[in-house]
Amino acid sequence: MTDLPKIVVTGASGRMGQMLCQTISQSNACTLVGAIERAGHDWIGLDIGVAMGGADMGVIVSDDALAAFAQAQAVIDFTVPEATIEFAAIAAQARAVHVIGTTGFTDEQIERLEPASRHSVQVRAGNMSLGVNLLTKLTQMVAKALDEDFDIEVIEAHHHHKVDAPSGTALMLGEAAAAGRGVALSDVRDAGRDGMTGARKRGDIGFAVVRGGDIVGEHDVMFAAAGERIVLRHMATDRVIFARGALKAALWGQSRGPGQYDMFDVLGL
Ligand SMILES: NC(=O)C1=CN([C@@H]2O[C@H](COP(=O)(O)OP(=O)(O)OC[C@H]3O[C@@H](n4cnc5c(N)ncnc54)[C@H](OP(=O)(O)O)[C@@H]3O)[C@@H](O)[C@H]2O)C=CC1
Ligand SMILES: O=C(O)C1=N[C@H](C(=O)O)C[C@H](O)C1
User: Fold this and answer.
1) What's the domain count of the chain?
2) 146 domain-assigned
3) What is the predicted pLDDT for the residue at 3?
4) Which atom of ligand 2 is nearest to 16's Cα?
5) Which of 32, 47, 73, 84 could make an SS bond with 5 (beta carbons 3.0 to 4.6 A apart)?
6) For ligand 2, mutation pick of 162, 172, 237 (most atoms within 8 Å of CB)
7) Distance CA 23, CA 10 (A)
8) Measured CA distances, 114 to 5, 106, 233 (Å)
9) CATH code (residue 83)
């Protein structure tokens, strides 16, 4: 029997769920011990490797999150907000590290995650990649250096299956830009322009959203002034970058006490 940290993946049939199961099964730093899907899902009872169209991984897809989490040290969860809130409570019961990649939470839903973090380590980020977390720090620095003569716009593009907008990453970048300027994003956020919007308000942080095809995830932060523009850009071309970041967070969390953390903590940024 191995002593490596045992990990469960929720939403195992999803785009990120499958990428995570593959990444963990190829890692020599941890072991995949569980794959969770909704009750009634076609994959329940199948081996996750076989369900994905590959070789047997020795892990049967189940809808029993409590039983799976109880035998694991970490849970990696890229699903939907209401499911993640339920998984947070179960991870707390099992004292398992809960890595949350899910996006699209309302403020009220984010508050509902907090009680579980009194008993377990929660690492949550709208983007788990090293590149985007670095871009977020750079965004804060640039926003701090420039005044409101520079209009800040966050432009994001994703595949046509994505259900939330602006993306979790775009909101992270907007928060960082607002923090750089010393304001609250909620006071300056300008999302969803359509029709007779009136002229742009000085100091606002704007968001623009593209959805199409199989775009993995692209984010620009534009600082536009009279006569010049600065654009900071990240382009994801493979979901494995998010899975690697999530795995790093799951391992990092093993030596932390209960509480809420983000990828800046994990990456030391
Ligand atoms: N933080 C980051 O770095 C990243 C975050 N994301 C975020 O991760 C989330 C998932 O993205 P993606 O994989 O593309 O989406 P998918 O729709 O492909 O996958 C979501 C999975 O969650 C499952 N699911 C939904 N509800 C439950 C439930 N109650 N119990 C168990 N499983 C459930 C879905 O099953 P079913 O289809 O049957 O409903 C599906 O398998 C999104 O919020 C996305 O924005 C994505 C990439 C990177
Ligand atoms: O849904 C996705 O695909 C992605 N979601 C995250 C987000 O909302 O920012 C991260 C990444 O861009 C891919």
Assistant:
1) 2
2) yes
3) 87
4) 3
5) 73
6) 162
7) 14
8) 24, 14, 32
9) 3.40.50.720
Domain that holds residue 22: 6-124+239-267
The reply to whether 120 and 84 lie within a common domain is yes
* pLDDT tens for each residue of 50-78: 999 999 999 999 999 999 999 999 999 99
Q: Hey, what amino acid is at 166?
A: P
Q: Look up residue 218 and give its amino acid.
A: E
Q: CA 115, CA 30: separation in Å to the nearest integer? A: 27
**Please, what sign has the CA dihedral across residues 143, 173, 237, 129?**
positive
Shared-domain flag, residues 15 and 34: yes
In this prediction the ipTM stands at 0.98
CA distance between the termini of the chain: 36
Separation between Cα atoms, residue 6 and residue 71, nearest integer Å: 8
> What separation in Å is there between the alpha carbon of 227 and the centre of ligand 2?
32
In a domain, 114, yes or no: yes
Q: Nearest bound ligand to CA 80?
A: 1
Q: What is the pTM of this model?
A: 0.98
